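Justification of computing resources. Each target in the renewal requires a structure prediction run like the one illustrated here; the chain below, 479 residues long, is used simply to show the kind of job we budget for.
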Amino acid sequence: MLFNSYEFLFVFLPVTFFVYFFLNKKRLVLASKGFLVFASLLFYSWWNISYLPLILSSVLFNYVIGNILANGKYKQISKKITLAFGIIFNLSMLGYFKYSDFFIENINYILTSNYELLNLILPLAISFFTFQQIAYLVDSYRGETKEYDFLNYVVFVTFFPQLIAGPIVHHKEMMPQFSRKRNLFKSHKNITLGIFIFLVGLFKKVVIADTFAIWATDGFDHQPMLTFIEAWITSLSYTMQLYFDFSGYTDMAIGAALLFNIRLPINFNSPYKALNIQDFWQRWHITLSRFLRDYVYLPLGGNRSGRLITHRNYLTVFLLGGFWHGAAWTFIFWGFLHGLALVVCKEWQKTGIKLNKIVAWLITFNFVNITWIFFRANQWEDAVKILKGMFGFNGINLPASFIDNKILNYIFSEASYSGFNNMAIILLFIMVLIVTTQPNSNNLVHVKPSMKFFVLYFLAFNFSVSSLNSVSEFLYFNF
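Resulting structure tokens:
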């Protein structure tokens, strides 16, 4: 079920909200949690009910392993072996569904064999709930989990606002919130703020991201060749689409959770304001960066074993991060480029030379924009096509009206080919200004209701609902 659907907005969310708090009001706390689990599993299985047993099996397995690790009931079993078994099981399940065909394709290519592909449909959210539960197992091994009730654990994994595409949450930051007595009753402040944040995210997704998706899809998937301007419109459109799509989803998740008095962690903090690649990854998909740091980078040794080992760890983390996003060499190459950029960034910082902020931003933003091309490309040829256009290999032919400074005439003239509306240039310029100068939506949690607040509330709702009829899908559902 999509957040940007009529059934979610007008049936699922209000019904779940009212039943949950009605049961809590009647002091039926266990029933309310049970209902929340039921509603979350309904939300998950709306897409494809055949994978409901998969997530239930995963939850049950990890709960049992987590209990063994945390309680130490079976002292004859090594905790390290138990943890390794749990992690291998989770990664094997993820690998089977997500990477089987990738490995078969590469084996066929290397050995010139003809093994048949499995053509498995990727289970929704498997990357997210797998990482979340691996983190739970490691935390249990370290003695950092305190909640061993099965129903509470199922709530932790399946809570519908964060189930599909994150944020990737820790057990210790979620479960205490469900246990607080004051959170069992409606909070008008949280309801007002939650709806507003949700609507901001919905507006980001269905109005902004889906608009840029038109130009990005046309350039990447439909055009055989792109001119200089068309290629830059394509790449920047995807850069904006991805940001507003994923940050919009995160805002909706945060807003929906807030209705239930649950505060999810911040996942975005104006990443396109970053002045270097390290800064970017401290702002973009923050919970994934946190996971990779805590459960991959630090166990590998972090920066404790010398410069070369530290650089190896950076590259390993980003290669794994790229592969986590998708079973394709383009994702791996995207991860490699970011890992290499972080190595260069760290070495540059050691020189003590500081770049002008505008220069630093231009380098960082353009690097991110160019590397997103490999993230988006369905195949290498698509990436090469965009890059050739961006770097002028197809010629830099500016329209005469543009060269003559008849800017308005150029902007509002007919597009150079079907699907590329020159209004994209204005919108891209406006959005780049917004994402680099305006406060992040995280600041909305501190907003106090006012008349301006409710006017924005009303406008965001109307614009968004009027756009629900268009075909739309969250990009990160694919990861």
